[in-house]
Amino acid sequence: MKGKIYKGPIKNLCVPGLNCYSCPGALGACPIGALQAVIGSRNYKFAFYVVGFLMAVGAVCGRFVCGWLCPFGWIQELLHKIPFPKKIRSFRGDRALRWLKYVILAVFVILLPLFVVDFLGQGKPYFCKLICPAGTLEGGIPMVALNEGLRSAIGWLYAWKVAILAAVVFLSILLYRPFCKYLCPLGAIYGVMNPISFYRLRVDEEKCIRCGKCARVCPMQVDPVRTPNALECIRCDICRDACPTGAISTGFRVGVDSKRLVGVELTIDKKEEQSS
User: Fold this and answer.
1) 204: number of Cβ within 10 Å
2) Residue 14 gets which letter from DSSP?
3) Which residues 6+ apart lie within 8 Å of 62 measured at CB?
4) Which of 75, 95, 117, 184 is most exposed, with minimal Cβ within 10 Å?
5) DSSP code of 250?
6) 119 with 216, same domain?
7) Mean pLDDT in each 10-residue stretch from start to end of the chain (276 residues)?
8) Last residue of a domain, one of 129, 156, 190
9) Transmembrane ranges (predicted)?
């Protein structure tokens, strides 16, 4: 198989989801890879547009990107459709483990590129180098498969990255989107923007009958009635489609959902109305 890797100016622009720059078919840059490059080269030139892009996409869409635009999220969706004797919906420690993606964002995407630098003062993309299974699948494996010279140069780091990818692939069959839930720093960034994003989920209190069906069908284990714009909601609309009364809707709305920033129950709204 032969071909040319696109190296044009469009590849300097970020796309919303994880999209490895090294992928032979990539036409754009990964925002997490670009963010690490920006932080690592801060002594030379800081590209504010990368940070601005992440903030703009997060403010407009939140984790809608995770649910509908990320190719690696789609791959995990397909893997989860593979039949298996017993799927795992949740487990002890699941909630605590979800904070791991924020630790990865802080350590591997920000702190290491910022402080662990070479003699030129240049940081490296440590998340891409040490963890990212999307990069291994989209870039590492295809490049090694298509380039004989690279095959003789692979070592423990490549084996480590392939092992992480294999673990994520296997876990994706058992669990729904394990990388999105526990490891993805891009999901962490978009997640914190969920409560203030223009695209949000809304529950009509008058129509809601508190049957709990929306919470039972949510693959991310979010209760839309209690926390309609939770950090983990990827806007997949499964809860909306399952609602028997049509109480759940999604769309673009202006304004901050301040009563639900930290998952406050809807009953508080009623208490405030009564007290006033």
Assistant:
1) 12
2) B
3) 190, 191, 193, 194, 197, 199, 200, 229, 233, 235
4) 95
5) E
6) no
7) 66 84 76 92 78 95 95 96 94 95 97 91 92 92 83 88 98 98 97 94 94 96 94 96 96 62 35 38
8) 190
9) 46-75, 96-117, 153-176
